[in-house]
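User: Here's a chain of 302 residues. Predict its fold as tokens.
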Amino acid sequence: MGGVIRQTWNYPTILLTFATFFWGGNAVVGRYLAPEFSPVTISFLRILLSVLIILPFIFEPLKKEWGQVKKHLPLFFWFALTGVIGYNFMSYWALSYTSAINVAILNSLSPIFIMFLSFVIIKEVPKGRIIFAVIVSMLGVVWVMFDGSIVRLLAVQWNFGDVVMLGGVLSWAVYSILLMRKKLNVHPIALFGYSSIIAVFLLIPFTVYEWVKYENVFAVATHLHWAGLLYLGVFPSIFSFLFWNRSVYLIGASRCSVYMNLTPVFAAILGVFLINENLTFAQGIGGVLIFVGIFIATRFKK
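Assistant: Prediction complete.
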């Protein structure tokens, strides 16, 4: 069993598929929780739960890596702000105004943001097939967004939630570039752990203020709400981050970014089964284009 896990840890295709599947679930569960909880509360509880769950298992790596981490504390502050807080907070904020599928679709703009920032900041020029793969996948994203209708594309009107989600996508792109540019000699688990712990402390004052100002924050919480928060604290918060960080280390941010387009596919499928969102024919066509783009990006070895 241990050998299988070690082998999987070196296969970014498997890691990224699971990471995006959990992120797809994140959009759906976040949409379910958004009417009852604020973005600050969801973000804080999600991160706090993930830290409490994983801390007993990673205490030794954290202690061992502290010498390296303390040399780069400002950088870990930015990891926490952009990857742990910024992206998640804006995702849950956006879900108060738009659908889970829309949030997941806009999340698929990450490859464009990441490739652009990779080129500008670290001078990483993507290969032609990666660019082509992103274009094909983005066609799938656009097709899903506008239900295959040119009329809807020309008459598009963005709502506030869509704009907020674009800010979240930019925040995630910055986080990915920081990971790639600053390849620290720190174990991925320690990187994740310290980033999450710092994020918890950064969110505490905002959360306390909100809970004091608005009494009975949890008055409407049911066992399903708590189950949703537990999902957010385990799968997208722990596994997706570990899988993404490892994959960026293995193959780089640009190649990983193509997989972000799987998120709306998984979100659409999960949305149909879990919160009764509708899956259209156009979304099916878009999903096929997204998979074709990923196939092109991964068909040939580096």
